[in-house]
Write a structure and sequence with these properties.
This protein is of the alpha/beta class. Helix content is 52%, strand content 10%. Helix 1 crosses helix 2, helix 2 packs across helix 3 and helix 8 packs across helix 9.
């Protein structure tokens, strides 16, 4: 019977645990006759630790590992077996690959294993792998940026170049795309996609009497046909003025009626309101708000509203804030309409106006 020294046993255990060698390879390396001896040393070391090298322990009664200790030992062997199989599979695939980039892709697939060990098995540098991975992330970011820019251009063109970063952000969120507002501003600025609207609004606050002002700048409505607001503006086409009257439902901000008036007479304003009432059937209690234009202060206009159970409300004189919603619509319309639907004749203007109001009611994002 051959008795081996503690140094031989320790070296055998080191080769087994750290180098991952099997019992037969350890026997060939160290000149040990029987692989069973190596397995015996491994079992003793896993159970007794350093005390397994104490020769006097052999004089004691033989003790066997408990069920829990044996179960842990089997689990450790199972993990070691899976690791060796994974490394063997990786090595067999890596030997068939010559290009470093392909090896880097293979290492990236084995993300659960140690990068250092995989690079060593694949005979590539660890720094080279991380450089390749950084370049792949940059390419992916460039692709995501191009896709985002393509979507932004699509939304920008659909709005006729009128959307700023706020409405652009809402349009992107409607498509499930969330972008930081600062990054969105930078993308729009760098690609010359900023809004074409440069409207300067000069507002003056003038204190006037609050006679008949029922809204008091409260433009919120709980239901449709609860609060309407109206006003008249004008356009010059071929040096000829045309008057436009619009009625807005404050519940959702949609334009429920618009007409191009032949003149500024009160009867024309009454006809526009009459058409809106016949179309929507609001019932009694509707509040119709306007400014103090001569058409809205006329007896004909007031008598028609009273006859149909519509409550008349009027802004304070010289105060555009009291009718801000319809004034804001006119400002956006006059800036966006020529950009989205250019016109030069009256027929083209009438068609462009219908298309824009349809876009405003159905598509345009309102803030």
């Amino acid at each position: 019977m051959v008795i081996y020294s503690d140094e031989v046993k320790r070296e055998a255990l080191r080769l087994y645990y750290r180098e991952g060698m099997g019992a037969r390879r350890i026997c060939k390396r160290l000149g040990i006759r029987c692989p069973a001896s190596v397995r015996y040393w491994v079992i003793n070391y896993s159970v007794f630790g350093e005390s397994s090298f104490d020769r006097r322990r052999k004089r004691c009664a033989v003790s066997f590992p408990t069920a829990d200790e044996f179960y842990r030992y089997c689990q450790e062997l199972d993990r070691e077996n899976k690791r060796l199989r994974s490394e063997n599979t990786f090595l067999s695939r890596a030997l068939d690959i010559q290009r470093p980039n392909k090896k880097y892709e293979l290492i990236n697939e084995w993300s659960s294993e140690s990068v250092v060990k995989l690079c060593m098995l694949g005979n590539v540098s660890r720094s080279g792998f991380y450089k390749w991975k950084a370049s792949q992330e940059r390419k992916e970011n460039v692709k995501k940026y191009d896709d985002l820019l393509r979507t932004i251009r699509e939304i920008y063109d659909a709005s006729g170049g009128t959307y700023g970063y706020r409405r652009m952000d809402k349009a992107l969120r409607n498509r499930g795309i969330i972008v930081n507002h600062k990054r969105l501003q930078r993308i729009l600025r760098e690609n010359d996609l900023q809004s074409k609207l440069y409207v300067v609004r000069k507002n003056q606050w003038t204190l006037q009497s609050e006679k008949k002002d029922l809204l008091r700048q409260n433009f919120h409505a709980e239901r449709p046909n609860e609060k309407w607001t109206t006003d008249i503006t004008y356009f010059h086409i071929l040096s000829k003025p045309y008057y436009l009257m619009c009625i807005m439902d404050l519940y959702d901000g949609s334009i429920i009626r618009h007409e191009i008036l032949p003149s500024m007479k009160a009867t024309c304003a009454v006809d526009c309101v009459k058409a809106a009432v016949l179309d929507r059937h609001p019932g009694e209690g509707l509040i119709l708000h306007s400014d103090q234009g001569s058409q809205f202060r006329s007896k004909t206009y007031s008598a028609y509203l009273e006859k149909n159970g519509i409550v008349q409300s009027m802004s304070r004189a010289g105060n555009c804030f009291d009718n801000a919603r319809i004034e804001s619509f006119f400002g956006h319309m006059k800036a966006e309409l020529p950009l989205m639907y250019p016109y030069s004749t009256f027929d083209e203007f009438r068609d462009a106006l219908d298309r824009y109001i349809l876009f405003y009611n159905k598509t345009r994002i309102k803030t």
